[in-house]
Amino acid sequence: MPTVLVVDDDPALRLTLRRLLEKAGVxxxxxxxxxxxxxxxxxxxxxxxxxxxxxxxxxxxxxxMTMRRLAPAAKIIAISGGGRSKAMDLLxxxxxxxxxxxxxxxxxxxxxxxxxxxxxxxxxxxxxxxxP
Length: 132
Fold this sequence. Notes:
By secondary structure, the protein is an alpha/beta fold. Helices cover 46% and strands 18% of the residues. It contains five helices and five strands, in the order βαβαβαβαβα. Strands 2-1-3-4-5 form a five-stranded parallel sheet, with helices on both faces.
């Protein structure tokens, strides 16, 4: 069973993603900030990380960059809300820091199947179900 680490400071979003991903047959770990995410990432090496860009303490951009440096083949999806244009700027920065794909919040139920599919793919270039 694939494992996804969901990193977001919003407990309601983490719970929603947990429920949807578990329903799709994925094991889910949760972290509320970048520090907690890095501890879990080092200990568990999840198949996929879904990481919010804006969080307290250690932000998502730094978290993504550190994960990418530790595990170049890690699969990482950046997520952000905070207004469409601001979210797009932040997600573009997240891609530059090492995120494979990016999604604007709220994440739609229809995107869960694409996330699960990406989680099971071999590393390497593939068509993106997410934003370019």
